[in-house]
Amino acid sequence: MSTVTVFGATGAIGSLTVDNLLEAGHEVVAYVRNPAKVPSRWDERVRVIIGEMSDADKIDEAVAAGDVVVSALGPSMDRKATGLPLVDGTAHIISAMRDHGVTRYIGHGTPSILDPRDKPTMLTRTVGFMGRTFLPRAYRELIGMTEHIRSAGIDYTIVRFSAPNDKPATGKIRAGFFGADKIGMAITRGDIAAFTAAQVDDPTYLRAAPAISN
Q: Fewer CB in a 10 Å sphere around the end CB: N or C, the chain?
């Protein structure tokens, strides 16, 4: 089993990802901005490190405590938000991974970012257009995070999805690449979390960006 450092651990998908990791027998280090959001169900099973994404020293401490990094970070959709804090934070994560010899990274992305195995489809074009047009700052942040990861020379998996919802997890996940596999839009956050956690032990999508849907 691994010790997994989870960023975005108290978010809607992040907290479910931690649950899945614990169920699989992994140890978890949760990097958290607001300790008030730490779920009581974690009890003493999760080591919590408090810090901002701008705090390179705290990020270094969190990465050093684990063997694998999982990022459930996602950009703010607030139109008043400014800057690209998650791009800078991802750079801190990569720097810490290099310093401590951590090579495995699993994170989240958008279908508007293509994997070399993809063929552009109406879905990828639509998601890209919507992001660039209506949420340009968040779109740039997602692109910037992914570019950092892909160019870092690490063993990454970027899990791409487009329309998460809060319905109960189905356990039925389609995964693959656009234009080659039948990937839709909707997927439950529970299924995203389960797939994300499973990548810790699954090399199928090493250095790849699989798209998933229900």
A: N
